[in-house]
Amino acid sequence: MTMDGGAARARETADEVARRSYGKLVAFLAARTRDVAAAEDALSEAFAAALADWPVKGCPDNPEAWLMTVARRKWIDAGRQRERSGVVDADLEQIATAMGAAPEGGEIPDRRLALMFACAHPAIDAGIRAPLILQTIVGLDAATIASAFLTSPAAMGKRLVRAKNKIREAGFRCACRSAKNSPSGWEPCWRRFMQRSRRDGAMARAQTRCGVN
Description:
The chain is mostly helical. The chain has helices spanning 3-33, 36-57, 63-84, 92-100, 112-119, 126-138, 142-148, 153-170, 183-197, 201-210.
């Protein structure tokens, strides 16, 4: 395969994983870091690393596990960098241990339902809950969400950042002990969320943009 062909294959694989599993990967990371924004940043860096590595070495047999391993390392490295800069995270060692226990090459547990619960916490402003779910679970950017909700990207971005900060600072758990925290429980809950959201024109536009039925 030529270098151009390898790059195209790598991008296709990365795009497919992002469409299928972005929210699953973010939710799994957030369940351990308790920091949605940091989980998104680590995963973004992992995707960037994939687009640099996969065209040269080939796409891995389990792209999700590859991305999770790299994202976990990126998150731990970022936490240690913050410590060296004088920003102390008292839970870094505990969280790093939990991250180290994440699956290496195996099936990644689906924690999207738990992340939805965190995004819909009563302490989160009701007007930002749906946009927050669309970004963390579906992976839409602030500009796309803003256009659907008829607001500016800057204003939407600030509201999303504040909501994620509240989840981190308040220590909302992105995990639940219910048997519903599984694909069989997540999918019906997601469908109900989307069905109720169709009553809102802004949400309908967002669904059209992200191709969710």
